């Protein structure tokens, strides 16, 4: 089966460090691997309103269907979000909030369809201590576990000012093999 990667750029700055790191990793994918790149800042979603338990209709947002269809078409989803306040950006978080809706409507098979696919993360951060990125890593891991997806891990790089991540030699080395590593079925820490 041919793999199809969906790269969701979730930074507030175009051509930022996180995007640079994601593109460096994507360059290593086999040439027959489909890649689709979407900027979440260019596809705004309204604030998420949870209408799962109300009789009110759940309106379709302008860019929602495009993102839902792109998500369903991908075998691998890459959240490329800078580390903002120890977690993912608001663009990435809002995208995941809409997964709550997609579990119910318009197609209640969203979770079943996503099962077995792989969720990855790429982030650039100002800290040198990678432990500060654990909230972001846990969010992606637990999302994958809940959905029955594989978790490929998170590629971490250091850089705050534009272009700074290119000086992170360790991140550059990791990027060369990041998508080649074996993703594991995500499980919650307390599962057997």
Write up what this structure looks like.
Helices cover 32% and strands 19% of the residues. It is α/β, with parallel strands linked by helices. The chain has one domain (14-45, 61-169): Flavodoxin domain (Rossmann fold, 3-Layer(aba) Sandwich), CATH 3.40.50.360. It has a six-stranded mixed sheet, with helices on both faces. Strand 4, helix 5 and strand 5 (150-158) form a beta-alpha-beta unit. Helix 1 runs parallel beside helix 6. The longest helix is centred in the last third of the chain and has 14 residues, at 134-147. It starts with a strand and ends in a 7-residue tail after the last strand.
Which structural traits does this protein have?
192 residues, Rossmann fold, six-stranded mixed β-sheet, 6 strands, 19% strand, globular
Number of domains: 1
- The termini sit apart by 30 Å
- Which CATH architecture would you pick? 3-Layer(aba) Sandwich
User: Outline, from the CA principal axes?
Assistant: globular
CATH class: Alpha Beta
For this structure, the CATH topology is Rossmann fold
> What pattern of helices and strands is seen along the backbone?
EHEHEHHEHEHE
Task: Compose a concise summary of this entry.
This protein is an alpha/beta fold.
List the helices and strands and how they pair.
Blueprint: E1 4-9, H1 17-26, E2 34-39, H2 64-73, E3 76-80, H3 90-102, H4 110-114, E4 118-125, H5 134-147, E5 150-158, H6 169-177, E6 184-185
Parallel strand pairs: 1-2, 1-3, 3-4, 4-5
Antiparallel strand pairs: 5-6
């Amino acid at each position: 089966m041919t793999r199809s990667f969906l790269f969701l750029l979730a930074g507030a700055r175009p051509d930022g460090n996180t995007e640079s790191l994601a593109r460096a990793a994507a360059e290593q994918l086999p040439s027959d691997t489909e890649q689709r790149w979407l900027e979440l800042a260019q596809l705004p979603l309204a604030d998420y309103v949870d209408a799962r338990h109300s009789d009110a209709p759940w309106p379709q947002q302008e860019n929602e269907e495009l993102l839902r269809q792109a998500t369903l078409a991908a075998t691998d989803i890459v959240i490329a979000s800078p580390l903002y306040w120890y977690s993912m950006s608001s663009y990435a978080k809002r995208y995941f909030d809409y997964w709550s809706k997609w579990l119910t409507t318009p197609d209640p098979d969203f979770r079943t369809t996503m099962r077995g696919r792989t969720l990855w993360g790429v982030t650039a951060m100002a800290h040198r201590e990678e432990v500060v990125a654990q909230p972001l890593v846990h969010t992606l891991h637990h999302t994958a576990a809940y959905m029955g997806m594989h978790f490929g891990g998170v590629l971490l790089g250091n850089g705050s000012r534009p272009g700074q991540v290119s000086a992170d030699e360790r991140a550059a080395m990791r990027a060369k093999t990041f998508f080649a590593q074996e993703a594991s079925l995500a499980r919650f820490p307390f599962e057997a």
